[in-house]
Design goal:
Glycerate kinase, domain 2; 16 helices; Rossmann fold; 38% helix; single chain; 5-stranded parallel β-sheet; alpha/beta
Length: 386
């Protein structure tokens, strides 16, 4: 290593997502920077931890300077849970998984027919109470399949069965829905810009809909999936009787996100759907940081086929490539061939499993392993001869 090379003046931007189960996005940035500095001590490093709307979205916003606000809301099984949203000025970032996520279910317990998004509605109301007039609603990691019915109920909607009684929580009971009344929805929603941020573009119903594609991930049996698809269809029909946008919304991209909460947001909240990573990059100030960078490092826990469909690393790479910047990645596990990485705008990826093949040890020692991977990256990309 030459002295000149070891004192590289390159400016590096770290914009990685979390390594699920091991490191938050902010922790990933800390370890990557530590590994880089082992090789190039004088390096200029900036970090913008990123997310795509799912788990870790609030943490990424807080790392970018938003204030973390915690409230008590209704969890997916009706219990009280503590959930957080992020606020900066009149812009809030709300992560549905904070209130209605799988993380709130006991280990091995699923409730595909009964889990509710009521707490997500309470979290939105808390953001409105705090003065938010722009809300980014990140969806993903949900325990629910209720089409956002619980969320709308928490915000003032009345969803009634044939006896005029509110339907029970969850997606299954929507099969008994007879009438809907949205007139008492929180009036502040009409004056608030709400962006539905998701990394999936499924419709509400059918073979690519919320129940069929995502129900099994939440414990739904084939019988449950069929019941939920019918129930969500009934829900869409009843809402179409009271608002003209419901029919088109059920077919719209993103309607099936997170158990159909996308549909509820499009119909009841007047939300607009956008790819989660695109929204979050804007909110987190990524474009401004790109203007100060020579090299971008992105990544997530697993770089795989899913990554290519709206996940954070590809969104980062596309934005960086548009500015002519080189992008490399770090990850826990890599299953994409070099050609697929290149097509996504990623020059090379450094996987922790290439250093430690044992998955359990790799997860447990992710931080130190990531520093070793980042040091290797620095040798390859920051110590080039002038």
């Amino acid at each position: 290593m030459s002295d000149a090379a070891s004192q590289s003046t390159a400016r590096v931007l770290i914009a990685a997502d979390k390594f699920k189960g091991s490191l938050t996005a902010a922790e990933v940035a800390v370890h990557v920077e530590a590994g880089l500095r082992r090789v190039v001590a004088s390096l200029t490093v900036e970090s913008v931890p990123v997310a795509d709307g799912g788990d870790g979205t609030v943490d990424a916003a807080v790392a970018a300077g938003f204030e973390r606000r915690e409230v008590r809301v209704t969890g997916p099984l009706g219990e009280t849970v503590r959930a957080a949203y992020a606020l900066r000025g009149d812009t809030a970032v709300v992560e549905m998984a904070e209130a209605s996520g799988l993380r709130h279910l006991p280990p091995g317990v699923f409730a595909p027919l009964a889990a509710t998004t009521y707490g997500t509605g309470e979290l939105l109301r808390a953001a409105l109470d705090a003065g938010a007039r722009t809300i980014v609603l990140g969806v993903g990691g949900s325990a629910t399949n209720d089409g956002g019915a619980g969320m709308l109920s928490a915000l003032g909607a009345r969803l009634l069965d044939g006896d005029g009684v509110p339907v029970a929580p969850g997606g299954g009971p929507l099969a008994t829905l007879a009438t809907a009344d949205l007139t008492d929805l929180d009036a502040r929603l009409a004056k608030t810009e709400i962006v539905l941020a998701s990394d999936v573009d499924n419709p509400l119903l059918g073979p690519t809909g919320a129940a069929t594609v995502y129900g099994p991930q939440k414990g739904a049996s084939p019988e449950d999936v069929a019941l939920l698809d019918v129930a969500l269809g009934r829900y869409a029909e009843v809402l179409a009787e009271v608002t003209p946008v419901a029919t088109a919304a059920a077919r719209a991209p993103g309607a099936g996100a997170a158990g159909g909460i996308g549909f509820g947001a499009l119909v009841g909240l007047g939300a607009t759907f956008r790819a989660g990573i695109d929204v979050l990059l804007e909110v987190l100030g990524f474009e401004e940081a790109l203007g100060r960078a020579d090299l971008v490092i992105t990544g997530e826990g697993s770089l795989d086929e899913q990554t290519l469909h709206g996940k954070a690393p590809v969104g980062v790479a596309q934005a960086a490539r548009a500015r002519g910047l080189e992008v490399v990645a770090v990850c826990g596990r890599l299953s994409l061939p070099p050609a697929a990485l290149g097509a996504a705008g990623i020059r090379r990826a450094y996987a922790l499993t290439a250093i430690e093949p044992d998955p359990e040890r790799c997860m447990a020692e992710a931080g130190p392993l990531l520093e070793r991977a980042a040091a290797a990256l620095a040798h390859d990309f920051l110590l080039r001869a002038p």
